[in-house]
Design brief:
With 286 residues, the protein is of the alpha/beta class. The chain has two domains: 157 residues, Spore Coat Polysaccharide Biosynthesis Protein SpsA, Chain A; 93 residues, no CATH class. The chain contains seven helices and 14 strands. The longest helix has 16 residues.
């Protein structure tokens, strides 16, 4: 079995991504790691090179600056990386996502176990979306998503977040997936406020919008937040200590939106009926 890891980066240092920690967390269970790096204004490429790991292969890319439709340029960059993967499985990890060292052996064993089981097209992970600080998580967004795909499938990534399998030229579907029995630790929304503001300023145009000014994480419904009761990956200890926000306070002028009210109803349904009904970009077959 050969496993390819992959990601794409651009101005990752300026924007406060824990991209080096992300790469280091996955290297033990991949045979190669494809890192597509767009032309950056910081030392993103130099930092990746400095890892001096023979598994890492850097592919330089140029972003389509005129592509400003729903993050499609992200999908382009993701697929450039995936198309360079030569493994049986392709393991996608975004620049602010990290694996826990305790879960690596299980993930690797599951890929080996299902290598000759074509009905298993992907593996989905549970997500911890840290918000505001590394001590709390937000639960309104997706809570499960595939990050490992069988590399013989004909797939595209419309906005970078998920895969669409093309059985026929004009008909797409989500991949058939089973649980990886592991977690993705997502730190993008607990980076320092100044870094998040810089990131939003740089990426808004690719989504056809202006994110406006970002002054903090306080514009959120507290009903969405939960305390984090687990342990962080060891590789994140220094980043959490030096590059994450340490305090959180809701904006005193915050008023719940219609979306927030709908989420509150959803949370109540989940609690009463013991179900999980967040959006999913895969078909679970386990």
């Amino acid at each position: 079995m050969k496993v390819s890891g992959f990601t794409f980066l651009r101005d990752a240092e300026i924007s406060g991504y824990p991209f080096i920690e992300s790469i280091e967390s996955i290297l033990p269970i991949v045979d190669e790691f494809i890192c597509v790096i767009g032309k950056s204004e910081d030392s993103t490429r130099e930092k990746v090179e400095a890892l001096k790991n023979p598994k890492i292969r850097i592919v330089d890319s140029k972003w389509n600056e005129s592509m400003q439709d729903r993050g499609f340029v992200y999908g382009q960059q993701k697929m450039i990386a995936q198309y360079n993967c030569s493994g049986d499985w392709a393991f996608y990890l975004e620049a602010d996502e990290v694996l826990h060292e305790d879960e690596l052996p299980l993930i690797h064993d599951l890929m080996q176990k299902h290598l000759e089981a074509p009905e298993v097209e992907a593996f989905y992970f549970n997500f911890y979306h840290f918000y505001g600080t590394s001590d709390q998580i937000g639960i309104a967004g997706y809570r499960k998503a595939p990050r490992i795909i069988r590399n013989t499938l004909r797939t595209i990534a419309p906005d970078g977040l998920f895969w669409v399998v093309l059985d026929k030229n004009k008909i797409g579907r989500y991949p058939r997936a089973i649980s990886a029995n592991a977690n993705i630790y997502h730190y993008g929304h607990c980076r320092k406020i100044i870094k998040m503001a810089e990131k939003l300023k740089r990426v808004g145009k690719y989504w056809g919008s202006d994110h406006g000014s970002f002054n903090g994480y306080g514009d959120i419904d507290l009903a969405e937040l939960r305390p984090f009761e687990g342990t962080h990956p060891k590789v994140m200890n220094e980043w959490i200590e030096t590059k994450s926000e340490k305090s959180f306070k809701q904006n005193p002028h915050f008023k719940p939106s219609r979306r927030d009210i709908r989420n509150r109803v959803r949370f109540a349904i989940e609690r009463i009926f013991n179900v999980e009904i967040s959006k999913k970009h895969f078909k679970a077959i386990d």
